[in-house]
Specification:
heterotrimer; A mainly alpha; B alpha/beta; C mainly alpha; A: mainly alpha; 2 domains; two-stranded antiparallel sheet; 5 helices; B: alpha/beta; D-Maltodextrin-Binding Protein, domain 2; six-stranded mixed sheet; three-stranded antiparallel sheet; 11 helices; 11 strands; 19% strand; globular; disordered N terminus; TctA subunit of the tripartite Tricarboxylate transport(TTT) family protein (chain C)
């Protein structure tokens, strides 16, 4: 469970800091380079914009505390986190297991995350994933000749 | 229909074989002798670019002349200004079934970033051709000869990327002639040609292949060539050295292998590349077609060239403030 | 002019030979398919097919490659509408209204508009390409860094309408997009910027990876599973699977402006089809009487960008045919193809190889007609995808996305990047950050930065040149008018209202 207001505030604060980081890096790249705008010229302007607008947004959220009392459910957050972990695992396992095997695992995992809970549904999802792996093999290996790990 | 064809951006040789165009290369039964595996030519750039065309032409000549008992596969690994491709090649240390072409990014990208490789991490095999640069202006320009550059003020020259041969040559030009030409980097050779045609740039450097059509169409005027000898198709255009300027920089079309490959493999490829460089097929399909200068360098002379080239880039990048 | 049409008719006749017809059909179908795969766009499509088709004879090879190019523009829209994932980067703007329509159950109608818009945009682009290529090419080279800066300023002034409800969050998104556009090797001095110490980011952030994450993955995370299933069962009607001509005709204005603006932006150096779709979408929203509908499933919001990206693909061929220089990433690969086939592209191509050029143009006309037929026949089948249960659809889609993105550069890093943008997109969606300003910043920012810095490097830092180019001055004035348009309109209304009250 997460209140949208808390998230908004946290994101704005992070962006505020990011803005300063961008400005600092921009100064490091060189704002003016022999009389013309250097590599840091754009980043400094953009970073300043991020600092300014995220600052304004922070203040706005702090003032109107009643507005964004919406809540994001735990299930939904878990879904995002688990899908991301599944994708990271897919990338990591692609070279030891092979991308097609790893992709099969990814599909079954995501089917479970998105609602397949009973053994029967998981079985059907696994079947669909197996068929899809075949399709992916045809498309990417046979047709596009991509060298999959 | 789709399934019948083996479409491949990476495996040109295999694609041709599947199409039934190329004769099937006989596999020799002597498994112990090199080469016993298919050879992969890694191109650290996308399909259709200069280094890709070079790779595919080399592969075609080798296949036509049956110089290899195995198949040569061209594999494109673009991205990261060459870093992705050269990293990939470098990761096959000691494996003589991988080779790759040498481009500008081969030298400059490792100088810029903290790469796991630099030009010393590869085994030079040989060079097959080299390509000079022609300095040109828009044909409507007031600049008629190299001497007009000295009197003209506030000139702009195009370059493909910040760290590139065009930038290097322009810095040499400023040093040699005392001019104050400013280098404006663009993202591609076509953009630079367009900017010269539109009058947004005053000068540009281009390979003969890029420039000849523009010169023949009367859109551009050549001023000088960055090599000791004149170009066959443009016999009236002088070279920088003959005008007394020490501007001699050409692009080498060279081939390398990962580090730590056996000496027999190097000797084997020196032989193969020499036959390619001296073949009529190579002359027709590459040298004449792209107006490049014939050349063959063996492994040892290429190693020397690579060292000299890298130090030229390093010197320029130091002057530009990119390196400490 | 008459002569041109004669040449073109001969070209169409020559392109009707069986070999070329097969090549065109082959290229168009492959293009449609590659365009529909998320992450892979026309550049990848042409690159994938190039090594194969050089086995064909020269004209057939280029006809097939051309087919891949415009076929993928048709295909990109399909994925955008059905799955909310841009099939290629030029289809990103199509997601906004197209996917909203599909969610409403009108996938068939949206696909129909996308096909019609692709055809009309393609036809307008083709007619302009065949009739005025040389004239347009000489006009296009008048656009140097100064003029491109002005074009981008104008584009950014237009897109101020695309902000969404919260202007602060819109601006914040724009700044973030502009920042992401600076990642990679600096285009002017060459030092790496924000590369996280990795060479993977040296060439910048691949737009299609960001778009796939920000739109596709984020949208999936945000789906309310229970609701979506219930809704789908109610809304499934046969009629919704078919294109609807009446709705297409209603968008005639957007189709026209989209085609023309898309074509013009496509010709400009370094702008590209994606920028063209953004500008036309903004223009369509500006011109609309009720702009609020845009973003919530407006037919016009599909018509404008789809017409634009197809017209732009022909626009970008103008520099290639008339000047021998590539006008976009895809035409650069096409040019490489011409070289491999043994043709020398250059400013004399129209004179030295007229048969080749006109046969190719003829094949483009034929290819477009073929694509309309193919896509209309496929529409009901494709539209039914929108009604597949998320439990089955999502795993398959995520797998295709992962494989597709991997194949762009053979890089798992890119897959991770898409995942990260998926999470970022989800958070943005929850907090009401509009995604459009961010992608605008990423596409338009680099062009603007290059324009400004190239200009100033050329003049040694003197900015006065920006006001010496008539084209630029006109565009700057137009930008000012656009920015203050809401105020100006208010004034005009007040003036009109005053006599009435008096």
């Amino acid at each position: 469970m997460l209140r949208v207001r808390t998230l908004d505030l946290a994101v704005s604060a992070m962006l505020f800091l990011l803005g300063f980081y961008i400005i600092a890096s921009g100064i490091g790249f060189g704002v003016i380079d022999s009389g013309t705008p250097g590599a840091g010229f754009f980043p400094v302007i953009v970073g300043a914009g991020i600092v300014l607008f995220s600052g304004i947004n922070c203040l706005k959220v702090l003032r109107q505390n009643a507005m964004l009392s919406e809540i994001i459910g735990t299930t939904e957050i878990m879904r995002v986190v688990l899908t991301s972990i599944a994708l990271i695992a897919f990338c990591g396992l692609a070279s030891p297991l092979g991308m097609l095997v790893s992709g099969f695992g990814l599909m079954v995992t995501i089917a479970i995350i998105f609602g397949a809970r009973t053994p029967d549904m998981i079985g059907r999802a696994a079947l669909a994933a197996a068929v899809m792996s075949g399709v992916l093999y045809l498309i990417f290996v046979k047709f596009l000749a991509v060298a999959l790990p | 229909m789709v399934n019948e064809f083996k479409i491949s951006r990476r495996s040109f040789g295999a694609g041709l074989a599947a199409l039934g165009i190329a004769p099937l290369v006989p596999r020799l039964a002597r498994a112990a002798t090199y080469p016993d595996k298919n050879i992969t030519y890694v191109v650290a750039a996308g399909v259709g670019g200069g280094s890709d065309i070079l790779a595919r032409t080399v592969a075609r000549v080798i296949e036509d002349k049956k110089l290899l008992p195995v198949t040569m596969i061209v594999e494109n690994r673009p991205g990261g200004s060459g870093a992705i491709g050269y990293n990939y090649l470098n990761s096959h240390e000691g494996d003589a079934s991988y080779l790759g072409g040498v481009g500008v990014s081969f030298f400059t990208t490792p100088l810029l970033g903290k790469m796991r490789y630099n030009y010393k991490s590869f085994t030079p095999l040989g060079a097959l051709a080299r390509s000079p640069y022609i300095l040109v202006v828009n044909s409507g320009s007031d600049i008629k000869s190299l001497d007009d550059l000295k009197s003209a003020s506030s000139l702009r020259v195009g370059s493909v990327g910040a760290v590139a041969d065009e930038a290097l040559l322009s810095h040499l030009l400023n040093k040699e002639m005392g001019t104050q030409i400013r280098v404006v980097p663009y993202d591609g050779g076509g953009e630079v040609i367009g900017a010269v045609l539109g009058g947004h740039l005053d000068l540009m450097w281009g390979n003969p292949n890029e420039m000849l059509e523009q010169v023949r169409a009367g859109k551009m005027r050549p001023l000088a060539v960055s090599a000791p000898e004149r170009i066959k198709e443009l016999p009236e255009v002088p070279t920088f050295p003959e005008l007394g300027y020490d501007i001699n920089h050409t692009q080498l079309r060279a081939i390398v292998m990962p580090a730590g490959v056996p000496a027999e493999a190097v000797a084997y490829w020196e032989g193969v590349l020499k036959s390619v460089a001296e073949s009529d097929e190579w002359r027709e399909a590459y040298l004449d077609r792209f107006n490049e200068i014939p050349l063959y360098l063996d492994s040892a002379s290429l190693a020397k060239e690579m060292e000299a080239t890298s130090s030229r880039y390093e010197a320029m990048m130091k002057e530009l403030g990119l390196l400490k | 002019m008459l002569e041109t049409w004669g040449l073109l008719l001969n070209g169409i006749a020559a392109a009707s030979s069986p070999t070329i017809l097969i090549a065109v059909a082959f290229g168009a179908v492959v293009g449609l398919f590659i365009g529909a795969l998320p992450g892979l766009g026309p550049t990848a499509g042409v690159a994938i097919l190039l090594p194969l088709v050089i086995g064909f004879d020269g004209t057939a090879a280029v006809a097939a490659l051309g087919g891949v190019y415009y076929g993928s523009q048709y295909g990109g829209g399909v994925t955008a509408i059905l799955l909310g994932i841009p099939g290629d980067s030029a289809a990103t703007m199509t997601v906004i209204d197209g996917y909203a329509l599909a969610k409403r159950g009108e996938a068939g109608a949206a696909l129909g508009i996308s096909i019609a818009a692709s055809f009309i945009g393609g036809l307008v682009g083709l007619i302009l390409l065949t009739t005025f290529a040389t004239t347009i090419a000489s006009a296009a080279i008048a656009f140097g860094p100064v003029e491109m800066t002005a074009v981008m300023v104008f584009a950014l002034s237009l897109v101020s309408v695309l902000g969404g409800k919260d202007p602060i969050k819109g601006l914040l998104g724009l700044c973030l997009g502009l920042w992401l556009g600076t990642v990679g090797l600096d285009p002017i001095v060459g030092i790496p910027r924000f590369d996280l110490g990795s060479a993977h980011l040296f060439d910048g952030i691949e737009f299609s990876i960001l778009a796939v994450g920000l739109f596709g993955l984020a949208e999936m995370y945000n789906t309310h599973l229970g609701e979506a299933e219930g809704e789908n069962q109610i809304r499934f009607r046969m009629r919704d699977l078919l294109p609807q001509p009446r709705k297409i005709i209603r968008c005639w204005r957007e189709l026209g402006t989209g085609s023309v603006i898309g074509f013009i932006v496509g010709v400009l150096p370094g702008a590209g089809a994606t920028a063209a779709t953004m500008i036309t979408y903004a223009v369509a929203k500006r011109m609309a009487k009720d702009p609020e509908r845009f973003g919530n499933g407006a037919y016009e919001g599909v018509a404008a960008p789809e017409a634009a990206n197809n017209a732009a693909s022909y626009g970008s061929m103008i520099p290639m045919f008339a000047l021998g220089i590539p006008g976009s990433g895809t035409t650069a690969v096409l040019l490489g193809g011409l070289l491999m086939i043994g043709l020398q592209p250059g400013p004399m191509l129209f004179q030295t190889q007229p048969d080749f050029v006109w046969t190719i143009f003829g094949s483009f006309y034929i290819g477009n007609l073929a694509l309309v037929a193919i896509t209309i026949l496929l529409t009901p089948l494709l539209a039914s995808c929108a009604f597949v249960k998320p439990g089955y659809l999502f795993p398959a889609v995520i797998a295709i996305v992962a494989f597709g993105i991997y194949s762009i550069n053979y890089s798992m890093f890119d897959v991770m990047l898409a995942m990260a943008f998926g999470v970022i997109g989800y958070v943005m969606m929850k907090l009401g950050y509009p995604p459009v300003p961010l992608i605008l910043g990423l596409i338009l920012g680099p062009i603007l930065e290059r324009g400004i810095r190239r200009t100033l490097v050329g003049t040694n830092g003197d900015p006065s040149v920006f006001f010496q180019s008539p084209i630029a001055v006109v565009l700057f004035l137009a930008s000012a008018v656009m920015l203050f348009w809401p105020l100006i309109r208010k004034q005009i209304r007040n003036q009109r209202a005053r006599p009435a009250t008096n």
